[in-house]
Amino acid sequence: MSRAETGPLTRLGVPLVVAGAAIVVGYLFSVGLDGYFVYLGMSAIVAGIALLGLGVVTGSAGMVSLCQLTFAAVGAWVVSGLNRIGAPGGFLVWLVCGGIAAGLVGVLVGLPALRLRGINLAVVTLGLAAAADLTLVQIQFPGTVDGVSVDRPEAFSDDRNYFWLGTIVLTVCCLLVHFLRKTRWGSGWQAVAFSERGTAAAGASVRTSKLSAFAVSAALGGVAGGLLTGQVGLAFPASFTAMQSLALYVLAIMSGAHLIDMAVFGAVLWVAVPELLKRWGVPQDWGFVVFGLLGTHALTTGGNLGTAVRELWRRRSKGAAGVELSAPPAEVDMPPPGEPVLVVRDLSVSFGEVKALAGVNLSVPSNGVLGVIGPNGAGKSTLVDIISGFLPQATGSVELDGRPLNGLSPTRRARAGLRRTFQQDRVPAGLTVGAYVRFVARRRLSSSEIDEALEFFGCPPAKTPLRRVDVGARRLVEVVGHLLARPKVLLLDEPAAGLPHEEHVALGLRLRQVPARFGVSVLLIEHDLDLVRSVCDTITVLDFGQVLASGPQAEVLANPDVLKAYMGETELL
Ligand SMILES: Nc1ncnc2c1ncn2[C@@H]1O[C@H](COP(=O)(O)OP(=O)(O)OP(=O)(O)O)[C@@H](O)[C@H]1O
């Protein structure tokens, strides 16, 4: 099977062809539809752009934002204001200005998101939307008092042409989101939604990921608001209420608006549900009840329409992809271990009464693999957390290649060349294998470099979506990403967890070659002694947070204290 990612022609060509087709269909609708449907269609376009934005912040980056129409109001305000003063450039330039202004407001609103999550963030953003509601009623939009309506571009001045312009703007916004999701920002959104710790361990900034998601989402909201102002001529606060923001959020969650087609589908629902209710003689506000029920279903089941349909399709097409390690790796020349590259001195940390680690010293030689073993609760994961900067309250010192790391955040340690993997799955399901590896590696990689590394660890091809990869293989994809970052040291926290036992030694043969093949030294935490034996020349044993023994493998595994403390003599021998 070819391991290559999709080629540049497919990556660029297919979206551009689809976009071209959408613009043509938009034109055909603009000339062929009844005038009332053109009006409804324009409303759907505005909702679609706002939903696309919500898809970025909620669906991709996993944050709650209940003030999308407040951002739309900012866009509407800027367009109305620039129109009112007759600013140069015309409508399209004002629209861009509205988007930028809303994006900047989005960054400000995103600042609390750096500390708040879930219900707290919901309260803050909904509070902001409610406050904006009241303020807009007080101050009014520019031009409403004196009745100066917004000038559309000359070529798109009638409703039919304006609808076509809306289709073009929506298409451009869809392309923008599509391509942004393929950049580091986009990967960062997915990563931060799944695990902030995993994001930081990849040397990516959690702050940048969150703020960029809010900025892009708000900017799209601003464009939607500006476009709405051009549609109706004058902006009114009633179009941007907190209640509507809430309903839009529910719709985004229910439809799965992080998927571009579902954002468009959600927009159709946004317009069609109230319209159908009107035709059936039911009050239109009941539309909120319908969205509320659908949203409650989505939130309680944790799914959404778009993902459910795709899952159904995938289940019909293929099963989960796993690891294939049966063939032994080719021999390589192994350089002898050198001077210590990671030196850890006197590490201690307590959790209340529990002394998780007390005065631990160890060092990882360059070109070497140090094994750290110990019974459950011995402090192994705590050790990795401290070294990688996730437990800043710990005492002691960590030096990497002679550089003290104390006081550095996990992101900075990762960028300094100290990487780690996690015992729990921290790999975001929304990316492909290749996109995730590029994100974690943080450097320019050729496709062949990625393919070779994936193949060496028996991982699925780069183009495989991670949601189709089983948990054992995902852990190894994580290892590959960090190795391709070429750090000085990689801390591996039970990399074999999730693999069938018969694959453990096969993985060990590969881990042993890591210093030679990737130029990376390794600290390996593992429960499986067969694997540790096959990889590590030197071993440190932890017990109750202290070093019980340390030194060459044979010596340590024969130590009577280790035999007694670790697992029982017979199992070790
Ligand atoms: N956040 C925490 N709060 C309180 N106690 C903790 C916390 N993290 C770890 N501990 C305690 O610290 C000790 C060491 O835990 P740690 O997870 O590092 O052990 P481990 O050797 O990695 O175990 P395992 O092999 O089961 O993963 C345990 O007693 C654990 O209960």
TrEMBL record:
Localization, UniProt: Cell membrane
Membrane topology, from the record: Multi-pass membrane protein
Signal peptide region: none
InterPro entries membership: AAA+_ATPase, ABC_AA/LPS_Transport, ABC_transp_permease, ABC_transporter-like_ATP-bd, BCA_ABC_TP_C, LivM-like, P-loop_NTPase
GO molecular function per UniProt: ATP binding; ATP hydrolysis activity; branched-chain amino acid transmembrane transporter activity
Domain ABC transporter: 342-569
Keywords: ATP-binding, Cell membrane, Membrane, Nucleotide-binding, Transmembrane, Transmembrane helix, Transport
Keyword Membrane: yes
Organism domain of life: Bacteria
One of the record's GO cellular component terms: plasma membrane
Residue ranges of the TM segments: 12-30, 36-54, 61-79, 91-114, 121-141, 161-180, 213-234, 246-273
Name assigned to this protein: ABC transporter domain-containing protein
Species, as recorded: Actinokineospora globicatena
